[in-house]
Amino acid sequence: MNILVCVKRVPETGGRVTLSADAREIDTRYLGFTVSPHEECATEEAVRLVEANGGSSTVLTLGPEAAADQLRAAMAIGIDRAILLETDGQDWDPVATAAAIVDAIRAEAAAGVQYDLLLFGNEAADSGDFQVGIRVAIALGLPCINGVKSLEIKDGVATARREAGGGWEVFQVPLPAIVAVREGINLPRYPSVPGRLRAKKKEIERSVPVARQAGAAGPEKIRLSLPAESEGRAEILGTGADAAPAVVDLLERIGVLA
Amino acid sequence: MIGAGIVGNSMAYHLARQGWRDIVLIDKGALPNPGGSTGHASNFIFTTDHSKEMTAFTLDSVRQYKDLGVFTQSGGIEVARTPERMEEFKRRLASAHAWGIEAELISPARIKELVPYIEESILLGGFYTPGVGVVDSLRAGTLMREAAVEMGALTVSAMTETTGIDVVDGRVTAVRTDRGDIQTETVVIACGIWSPRIARMAGASIPLTPAVHQMISVGPVPAFADTVGEITFPIVRDMDTNMYERQHGGDLEVGSYAHRAILMSPDEIPSIAESAQSPTELPFTDDDFDVQMEQALELVPEILRDERVGVRYAINGLLSLTPDGMPILGETPEVRGLWSVAAVWIKEAPGIARTVAEWMTHGTPDIDPHSSDIARFYDHHRVAAHIDARSAEGFNKTYGIVHPMEQWNSNRNVRLSPINTRQRELGAVFFEAAGWERPFWYGTNESLLAEYGERVMPRAAEWESRWWSPIINAEHLAMRDRVGMVDLAAFAIFDATGPGATEYLQGLVVNQVDVKVGRVIYTPLLNAAGGIVADLTIIRLGRDHYRVVTGGGMGMRDKKWFIDHLPADGSVQVHDLTSALYTIGVWGPRARDLVQSVTSADLSNAAFPFGTARTVDISGVRTLMSRISYVGELGWEIYAPMEQGLKLWDVLWAAGQPLGVVAVGIGVYAVTGRLEKGYRAHGNELELDFNLVEAGMARPSVKDADFVGKAAYLVQRASAPAAILCTLTIDDPTSASGVRRYMLGREPITTPDGGFLVNSRGRRSYATSAGSAPSIGKHVLMSYLPPEYAIEGTKLAVEYFGERYPVTVAIVGSRPIFDPENTRIRA
Question: Which chain B residues have a beta carbon less than 8 Å from that of A197?
Answer without folding.
Answer: 290, 293-294, 297
